[in-house]
Amino acid sequence: AQSVTQPDIHITVSEGASLELRCNYSYGATPYLFWYVQSPGQGLQLLLKYFSGDTLVQGIKGFEAEFKRSQSSFNLRKPSVHWSDAAEYFCAVGPLSGYALNFGKGTSLLVTP
Amino acid sequence: DAEITQSPRHKITETGRQVTLACHQTWNHNNMFWYRQDLGHGLRLIHYSYGVQDTNKGEVSDGYSVSRSNTEDLPLTLESAASSQTSVYFCASSEIAGSTDTQYFGPGTRLTVL
Question: Most CB atoms closer than 10 Å: which of A39, B68, B91, B95?
Fold first, then answer.
């Protein structure tokens, strides 16, 4: 069975500091991995996705993620956080592009001045 | 521009009533999904459809139903609303296959069952 674990429920970082959000997955075949962001009261927006190839994936808003098969991880990173990055972040895994996704429980990011 | 819309955006209903949440997409996507979002649970899949006349149960389908009579719409029906169904509901759609494919989400419907 596929599953996604986001170990950190809440994370607080100072504006300008670096950020890493953790995501671990369990999946029997080649996973398709996604990171979505949800601003308060909004829907979900795709930040980036990994299907194959280069294990370092670049996304929108300066985010990147690295797929590590040996660690079953797909951690999200940003070198310098802006106050507007405060939001809920969800990691998701699916069997194929476009099919039903299995989401983690999310990590809430707070950015302090 | 193509989009995915949900209506209503907010709904308050009473226990036992039937409620239908609408989802409409203009991308002509084959795949459509309904998720619910609850604190501490993230998003959980309710029902999904991979084409007209196709529907499938997800992880938390009890008490919900869907029907797909055309490509654009996948309405979600709560047959007899329960307080446990108070949640935020998201509809999503995607095209089949292709490495550039993305699942697009609607703005959500906040449902309160009293």
Answer: B91
